[in-house]
């Protein structure tokens, strides 16, 4: 089934001069949420020690999360929504103290919407290794200092193991649905394969069964951009003064990533060869508008994200392979018998539709059989975030099953 893009999309426009000027000041050494910062709508759940696949022990792990709706007495209406690489638990709601951005799935989650909070109890956790309140490199280790660059290498499976412990902590034995896009889709797949009895429905949006060599290569140049920044200091930068952290390397990594998240046609149509001659976020003049756009988003990103977390999460995505030590992807995916929405985007150049076709072929309960549900969009990979009306329609179809 194809879902056409519609006029009901998130506004995507060139950066204004006022927005650019607002980011001219020095960014922090790290944009992570830190102990003592305003909590916002976060809740926290301790899950104890996580032992990674490589044998590292992460003690005192705490999961930050947000919830909406009411959990039924039988705990059968809980829906788990898993965020993408640079996302966080804040699905809906305004920006505010301790929460630098507004909700990233407004129009999809809420009363009467596709993920209807009048019916479903929606839970969105921050991933292990992240920087929005869950234990990660910017968190304090048992010795009282930040984990920094010594935070262990983690895989998608390690992160899902932490999510399983988190579900136990909440008392949710079986999710009515597990939903995720991009990196969150990797986690959703891992849930379905690791614990199929704990997932009633599955939604995998713009995510592959395993990361290809092409995706790994794209990831590697981003992490190297961060490490190459002299202010990265091997990951030990948390005590640095504002503006003295690895923000240039992190901003460059974000600029690289945006080129994968958006389609070629979109950038050409939006910007062409137009100039943005006024001041840019980097203080330059006479730049192409597309360069100013990338600068703006890179600079803004450094104010809400952490360089060490970026490396750990990107590395986890590169390691993603649901078929590893399970007889291959198709054999692993066959473990999940329930209804599954597998959504691909026709202009996605990060995880092309062929990736979702493999997932659909492996899941016996795929809603459209061996073909993924196709979202026709001009926005590329980010279409699952932007095309909210079409994505919502597809999710309603799943949640009605």
How would you describe the overall organization of this protein?
The chain has helices spanning 17-22, 156-170, 183-194, 213-228, 247-261, 264-271, 289-302, 307-319, 329-333, 353-362, 383-386, 388-399; strands at 2-4, 43-51, 57-68, 78-82, 109-110, 115-116, 121-125, 177-181, 202-205, 275-276, 287-288, 340-345, 373-376. The protein is of the alpha/beta class. The strands form 3 sheets. The protein has a 9-stranded mixed β-sheet with strand order 1-13-12-9-8-4-7-3-2, sandwiched between helices. It has a two-stranded parallel sheet with strand order 5-6. 52% of the residues are buried.
User: How much is the radius of gyration in Å?
Assistant: 20 Å
The tally of helices reads: 12
What portion of the residues fall into strands of 2 or more residues? 15-25%
Category from helices, strands and their pairing: alpha/beta
In short:
The protein has helices at 17-22, 156-170, 183-194, 213-228, 247-261, 264-271, 289-302, 307-319, 329-333, 353-362, 383-386, 388-399, and strands spanning 2-4, 43-51, 57-68, 78-82, 109-110, 115-116, 121-125, 177-181, 202-205, 275-276, 287-288, 340-345, 373-376.
């Amino acid at each position: 089934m194809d879902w056409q893009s519609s006029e009901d999309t998130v506004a995507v426009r060139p950066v204004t001069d006022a927005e650019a000027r607002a980011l001219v000041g020095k960014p922090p050494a790290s944009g992570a949420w830190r102990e003592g910062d305003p909590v916002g709508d976060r809740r926290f759940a301790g899950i104890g020690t996580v032992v990674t696949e490589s044998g590292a022990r992460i003690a005192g792990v705490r999961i930050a999360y947000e919830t909406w709706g009411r959990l039924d007495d039988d705990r059968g209406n809980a829906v788990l929504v898993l965020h993408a690489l640079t996302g966080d638990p804040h699905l809906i709601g305004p920006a505010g103290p301790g929460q630098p951005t507004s909700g990233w799935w407004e129009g999809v989650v809420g009363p009467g919407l596709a993920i209807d909070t009048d019916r479903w109890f929606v839970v969105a956790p921050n991933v292990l290794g992240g920087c929005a309140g869950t234990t990660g490199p910017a968190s304090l280790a048992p010795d009282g200092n930040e984990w920094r660059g010594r935070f262990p290498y983690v895989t998608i499976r390690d992160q899902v193991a932490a999510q399983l412990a988190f579900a136990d902590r909440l008392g949710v034995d079986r999710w009515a649905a597990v939903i995720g896009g991009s990196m969150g889709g990797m986690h959703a797949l891992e849930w379905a394969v690791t614990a199929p009895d704990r997932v009633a429905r599955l939604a995998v949006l713009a995510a592959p069964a395993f990361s290809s060599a092409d995706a790994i290569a794209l990831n590697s140049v981003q992490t190297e951009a961060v490490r190459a920044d002299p202010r990265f200091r091997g990951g030990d930068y948390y005590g640095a003064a504002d503006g003295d952290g690895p923000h240039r390397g992190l901003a460059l990594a974000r600029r690289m990533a945006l080129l994968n998240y958006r389609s070629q046609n979109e950038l050409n149509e939006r910007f062409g060869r137009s100039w943005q001659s006024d001041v840019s976020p980097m203080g330059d003049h006479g730049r192409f508008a597309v360069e100013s756009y990338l600068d703006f988003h890179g600079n803004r990103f450094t104010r809400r994200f952490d360089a060490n977390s970026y490396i750990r999460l990107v590395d986890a995505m590169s390691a993603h392979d649901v078929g590893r030590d399970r007889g291959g992807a198709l054999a692993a995916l066959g473990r999940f018998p329930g209804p599954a929405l597998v959504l691909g985007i026709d202009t996605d150049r990060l995880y092309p539709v062929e990736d979702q076709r493999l997932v659909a072929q492996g899941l016996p309960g795929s809603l459209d059989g061996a073909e993924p549900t196709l979202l026709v969009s001009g926005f590329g990979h980010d279409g699952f975030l932007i095309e909210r009306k079409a994505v919502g329609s597809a999710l309603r179809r799943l949640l009605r099953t």
